[in-house]
Amino acid sequence: MPKIDKPKILVVNDDANSLFALTSLLAQWSDQESYEVIAARSGEEGLRQVLMHDFAVILLDVNMPGMDGFETAEAIHQRARSADIPIIFITAFVADELDRLKAYQRGAVDFLFTPVIPQILHAKISVFVALAMKNEELKKQARQLSQRTTELTATNKRLTREIEERQVAERQNHAKDEFLAMLGHELRNPLSAISSAASLIALPGVSADGVARSKQIIQRQSRHLGRIVDDLLDLSRAMSGKILLNRAPLDVAGLLATSLETYRTTGRTAGYSVTLDAEPGWVDGDVTRLEQIVSNLLDNALKYTPPGGAIHVSCDVDDKEVTLAVEDNGVGITAELLPQVFDVFVQGTSTLDRAQGGLGIGLSLVRRLAELHGGTVSAHSDGPGEGSIFTIRLPRVARPADKRQPIMETTDTGKPTVLLIEDNDDGREMMSMMLSCYGYEVRHAADGLQGLEVAANFLPDLALVDIGLPGIDGYEVARRLRANESTRGMKLIALTGYGLAEDQRRVLEAGFDLHLVKPVDIDHLMKAIGSCSPATVKP
């Protein structure tokens, strides 16, 4: 049983003798009844006590100078907290019916006439004290019940949340299991094609056409594997917030035209009707990441549109936004799947032959990359068989003023001389051959120290440096090249399998001009070399 505070009784009487007599009489029973008595000499003093304490009952003299008992009672019951305190009027005069009515209208519950009969006073007081104790006990029980209800409600909410989180986790685990199975499928298909093509090239008697077709298959499937790896890494970076954007003003319409031309050139849109309707619209963005957005949206449209279907790409511009949209007339999206299409590991069921492949993570990456650019992405479909449309909205910026590009002087061939520092023998040989085929004079080295020696003797315009080198790593190579007076002005491009924002920061701090993530597409490499070509002849 919780401890109950002692009830209080207030006695208000202007006559000192009467006040003393009443309080003394009540004090006789205070220990027995467990209450406390407080005295007041006027109505005003009685009101002050009511402001400070809660009372079980008030004994109030009717005839007092200044504020009489009726006025005091009315003032007490006007206050919300004291409105229900029972008041017993005490008077030496026999009250007529009008006085009784006036008293009851002001909240009186009873009358006592002086001289007060102790037994009657005791009986009346006992009732109100007992009632006050019961009320206080009920209030405390109500507070405890309310607290317990609050605790139970919080517990119920927590349990409900845990159940929902567990269900979400189970769905995610199921989706991850399906994703891993799909990943194995998607990796084995191109690896199988590459292995078969490589074996075919080695067979005696294979025709020149067979060799050429095998090489095309190897190139195509290698690019496909690269896209799978890139998507996996980029999604991980995006989810952890570690993608670093290299922003610059760019025209979305031009980017769309370039992307579609690449798709047509590589044959990825063969058998589809692909149209472009784009007006120039400039945004402040990372060209590589925006190309990634476009590629993923195009891949998604191709994947879920039957051969012979139509895909329409558009770019619209208003005062604040550039809107990029990819619309297809493919299999469409169900109402249940539509809200989840941008979630990780969510993938619609394709009725096609899956020639386009995919892991179901491209749209998740699209959403994150759009958000990093300060934009939004949305999807719409009228249902199965009705096609779909994906829309990207990006903040518009003003078209930049044209800048005169500096005239770059290089070797007599018009191309910069290149030093390749790469410890992987196959990778070094293949990249050296490719650069030579593009007309670059190339020297190469297998480790960092050898690379520094070749750089000091060859003095190339540009060095492609692998970061994970034996002996000294690529960071140290860059620092030593920058510290050497003869190689300080050399352009440096880092080649690495590490693509996090922290990796790029370390690369730039070490003195590199650019950071390329392996495997590097040859066209991307050519653009990078072109952007880093020296503006003046080296000394």
The percent range for helix content is 40-55%
Which CATH class of the largest domain? Alpha Beta
Stretches where pLDDT is under 50 for at least 5 consecutive residues are 349-357, 404-412, 535-539
- Order of strands across the biggest sheet? 2-1-3-4-5
**Secondary structure: number of strands:** 17
Domain Histidine kinase: 182-398
Pfam families: HATPase_c, HisKA, Response_reg
Subcellular location: Cell inner membrane
Coiled coil: 128-162
Description:
By secondary structure, this protein is an alpha/beta fold. It has four domains: 109 residues, Rossmann fold; 57 residues, Helix Hairpins, CATH 1.10.287; 148 residues, Heat Shock Protein 90 (2-Layer Sandwich), CATH 3.30.565; 114 residues, Rossmann fold, CATH 3.40.50. 48% of the residues lie in helices and 17% in strands. It contains 15 helices and 17 strands. The strands form four sheets. It has a five-stranded parallel sheet, sandwiched between helices. The C terminus is likely disordered.
Entry summary:
This protein is of the alpha/beta class.
How does the SSE layout of this entry go?
Layout: E1 8-12, H1 16-28, H2 30-33, E2 36-40, H3 43-52, E3 57-61, H4 69-78, E4 87-91, H5 97-105, E5 108-113, H6 118-202, H7 208-239, E6 248-251, H8 252-265, E7 273-278, E8 282-285, H9 287-303, E9 310-317, E10 321-328, H10 362-372, E11 376-380, E12 388-395, E13 418-421, H11 425-437, E14 442-445, H12 448-458, E15 462-466, H13 474-483, E16 491-496, H14 501-510, E17 514-517, H15 522-531
Parallel strand pairs: 1-2, 1-3, 3-4, 4-5, 7-9, 13-14, 13-15, 15-16, 16-17
Antiparallel strand pairs: 6-8, 9-10, 10-12, 11-12
